[in-house]
Amino acid sequence: MSGYKAARSCLALLGVLAITRALAADVAPVPVPEPAASAPQPAASAPAAPEAERPVDPDAPLATPIAPTTPLPDSVPGGPRVERVQITDPYIELHTFPGRGYPVFYVAARGEWVSIELRHTDWFKVRTATGKVGWVNRSQLMTTLAEGGGPTRFRDLRLDDYLARTIDLGAAYGRFHGEPMDKFWISWRFTDTLSLESTFAQVQGTYSGTTLWHVNLQAEPWSDQRFSPFFGIGLGKFKNIPNPSLVQDQVTNVKMGDAILGARYHLTDRFELRADYAFYTAFASEQRNLEYHAFTLGVGIFF
């Protein structure tokens, strides 16, 4: 009986195996994809060398700071035009206020651009590209370059005032017919080359005293120059009073004509130097004229 059970168990086991094979033959095997080959990883790069350890190319040019080659725009469109100049001297000095007695607080180097904001006599208020604002003397800006590349022109304002003068007055000392003479004048310049001048003079001689005044029309052909010759003609009064000790002490009070030739030279600020030679003719009578000449040197002030 036990043998029968054993044979039965073997047959059941064989049947299960047969069924399992049949099922496996009907179902297609599912291929299992192989893992893709990974891309070769780059080798880990070495850490960058610090800046101080990097090799320096001896042929490479050294980087040096330079001033901008074009002026920086510092004005708004439609606003007033700002004049800019480029420094060509090794440096210019910026003072805190207009005057050599004020301290220098900044030095602008060659190649920098500065903007001119204001002028006071011979001092200019300038602004650098870095925003420094100070005063520079005209002498240090004479060699600067304008935006167009040409030299900059800065005229002497004091000379401009002299060339544009209207009122001129002064005093002079000289000799009138060999006697000491004091003279005072005031003139009005109504055109560039013509002016009216009134002169009063006194002569204190050994034997008499003379007073004269006249009004002249003067012409100044080269009135646009620092040194300016002039000439003029005029009419006036001549009065001579002899000393009471003289036997003939007759007073001469007559009309007079004169011609003058001279020159002016602008000294500084509002002062001028003047020299002139005058020829006077006093009309003493219809038969007799008195003729004198005078040379004077003086200083005038103009407005």
Write the layout of secondary structure elements.
Blueprint: H1 2-26, E1 83-86, E2 91-95, E3 104-109, E4 113-120, E5 123-128, E6 133-137, E7 145-146, H2 157-163, E8 167-176, E9 179-189, E10 194-204, E11 208-219, E12 227-242, E13 252-268, E14 271-282, E15 290-302
Antiparallel strand pairs: 1-4, 1-7, 2-3, 4-5, 5-6, 8-9, 8-15, 9-10, 10-11, 11-12, 12-13, 13-14, 14-15
Radius of gyration (CA) equals 52 Å
Compute the separation of the termini in Å.
158 Å
Number of structurally distinct domains: 2
Beta-strand content: over 45%
What's the arrangement of strands in the largest beta sheet? 8-9-10-11-12-13-14-15
Main beta sheet strand tally, sense and closure: 8 strands, antiparallel, barrel
Count the strands? 15
CATH topology of the largest domain: Porin
Annotated CATH architecture of the largest domain: Beta Barrel
| Low-confidence runs | 25-33, 42-46, 48-79
Helix content: 10-25%
**CATH top level label of the largest domain:** Mainly Beta
Overall residue-averaged pLDDT value: 79
Characterise this structure.
- Helix content is about 10%, strand content about 45%.
- It is mainly β and about 300 residues long.
- The chain folds into two domains: about 85-155, SH3 type barrels, CATH 2.30.30.40; about 160-300, Porin.
- The strands form three sheets. The protein has an eight-stranded antiparallel beta barrel. A five-stranded antiparallel sheet has the order 6-5-4-1-7, with no helix packed on it.
- The protein starts with a helix and ends with a strand.
